[in-house]
Design brief:
Elements (H helix, E strand, L loop, with lengths): L7 H29 L7 H20 L7 H20 L10 H4 L2 H24 L14 H5 L3 H17 L5 H27 L6 H21 L2 H23 L21 H13 L17 H29 L1 H4 L21
Length: 359
C-alpha cells in the first residue's frame, strides 16, 4: 500500500508511525536492558529509528533516479523528505546520525534540486515585484515593527523567501552542499539589489516609491547584519573560507579541482549507491574540519560582508541623489524670492517682510 513512487509521504509516514507507536515500549522495556549491558550512550529509540531509516534511505535512493524529468514529482519528493527529516528530529533522533538527507546530497540529486530551487526562487521574486501592492506597507493600519521601519511588502516577502530557503538546507549534513545553497542566496540578494536599482532609476527621487526602495535597502542591511551573527552563518562562513583555502592549495599543487559532492552510481545501474554515502561524508570531513568556536576570533569578515557593502553603497548613492534633488528644488523655488527688493517691501503686522514669493 505504501510502495508508490508518486507518494513518498506514504512510506515516510508509516515509518514515523512505527517510531511513535514503539517509543514507549523501547524506553520502558529495552532501554534498561541496554543500560544494564553497558550501552549507556545508546538509546533504544535512536537505534530502532536508525534501523528503520535504512529502509527509507534505500527506498529514496532507488526512487529518485526513476523520476526522470518530472520536476513536479521530484520537487514533491524533496519536500516530503525534508519534512520527514524534520519530524524525526522532533522525535529525538540525533541530527548527526545517518538519514535521508545524505541521499539528497548525492551528485545528480543535489545538482537538480539546487537548479529547481534557484528557478523557483527567481519566479517568486518576479511575482513579488510585479504585485500591485509591492510597494505598499504589508499590514495596513496594524502598526508593527515593520511599519515603523516603513518596510514595503515586496521586501518583507523577499526576506521571508530567504528564510524559507535557509530552513530547507540548514540541516544538510554536507558542508559543501550548504555552501552552494548559501552562494545561491547571495546571488538572489544581488539580483534583488539589481532589480531595485532598475526600478529606482525609473522613479523621481522625491516620489514615494523611491523612498520605499530606500527603506527596503535599510531593512535588508539591518537583517543581514543580524543574520551575520547567527551560529548557522558563522559556521557557513567558516566552511566557505576553509573550502576556498583548500581549493586554492589544490590548484597550487596542480592536483586539479575538488571532486563534486555526492555519490557514484553502481555500475550501469541508475540506482544511487547507498554505501558510497558514508564514503562521501568521510571525504568531505577531510576538507571541512569540525567547527571550532575559537577559530572565529582569527577569522576575517562575516558571511554577508560583500553583500552588505553593495547595499550600503546603493543607499549612500540614493541619499546623495535625494539631497541634491532637494537642494536643486529649493534653489529653483527661491529664484523669485532672491529678486525681491526688501527696501521696497511693506511689513506685516508681525514685523516681517510681507513678500508673496516667500510664502
Amino acid at each position: 500500500m505504501t510502495n508508490n513512487i508518486k507518494k513518498p509521504e506514504w512510506y515516510m509516514t508509516q515509518l514515523l508511525t512505527w517510531v511513535r507507536d514503539h517509543s514507549s515500549f523501547l524506553e520502558e522495556r529495552i532501554q534498561p536492558l541496554l543500560d544494564k549491558a553497558g550501552f549507556k550512550y545508546s538509546t533504544a529509540v535512536s537505534e530502532f529509528t536508525k534501523g528503520l531509516l535504512q529502509l527509507a534511505i534505500e527506498k529514496l535512493a532507488a526512487d529518485l533516479p526513476k523520476l526522470g524529468q518530472d520536476d513536479v514529482l521530484f520537487s514533491h519528493t524533496i519536500d516530503e523528505t525534508l519534512v520527514f527529516c524534520k519530524e524525526l528530529v522532533g522525535f529525538g533522533y540525533p541530527i548527526n546520525q545517518p538519514g535521508c538527507l545524505y541521499v539528497l546530497c548525492s551528485d545528480s540529486v543535489f545538482n537538480r534540486w539546487l537548479d529547481l530551487e534557484d528557478k523557483s526562487a527567481t519566479e517568486k521574486v518576479d511575482a513579488i515585484l510585479q504585485s500591485e501592492t509591492a510597494w505598499q506597507l504589508p499590514y495596513g493600519d496594524n502598526i508593527t515593527d515593520l511599519e515603523e521601519l516603513m518596510v514595503p511588502e515586496c521586501t518583507e516577502a523577499f526576506m521571508t523567501l530567504m528564510l524559507v530557503i535557509t530552513d530547507r538546507y540548514k540541516r544538510l549534513p554536507n558542508p559543501l552542499a550548504k555552501i552552494k545553497f548559501f552562494n545561491m542566496q547571495l546571488l538572489l540578494l544581488d539580483d534583488f539589489r539589481t532589480r531595485l536599482v532598475q526600478i529606482m532609476r525609473e522613479q523621481h527621487p522625491l516620489d514615494a516609491i523611491y523612498g520605499s526602495i530606500l527603506n527596503a535597502i535599510n531593512y535588508i542591511i539591518l537583517i543581514l547584519k543580524e543574520w551575520s551573527d547567527l551560529p548557522l552563518f558563522l559556521r557557513l562562513h567558516y566552511y566557505k573560507v576553509e573550502y576556498e583555502n583548500f581549493e586554492t592549495n589544490k590548484k597550487k599543487q596542480g592536483n586539479g579541482d575538488l571532486a563534486e559532492i555526492g555519490t557514484e552510481k553502481d555500475g550501469d545501474s541508475n540506482t544511487i549507491s547507498v554505501s558510497s554515502l558514508v564514503v562521501t561524508n568521510f571525504e568531505i570531513s577531510e576538507v571541512f574540519h569540525d567547527f571550532d568556536q575559537i577559530k572565529l576570533d582569527f577569522m576575517k569578515g562575516m558571511a554577508f560582508d560583500n553583500t552588505i557593502s553593495l547595499f550600503e553603497h546603493l543607499r549612500k548613492e540614493m541619499r546623495k541623489i535625494i539631497v541634491e534633488m532637494i537642494m536643486y528644488d529649493t534653489k529653483a523655488r527661491s529664484q523669485h524670492y532672491r529678486k525681491d527688493r526688501y527696501c521696497s517691501q511693506r511689513y506685516c503686522s508681525r514685523g516681517m517682510v510681507d513678500s508673496p514669493h516667500a510664502c
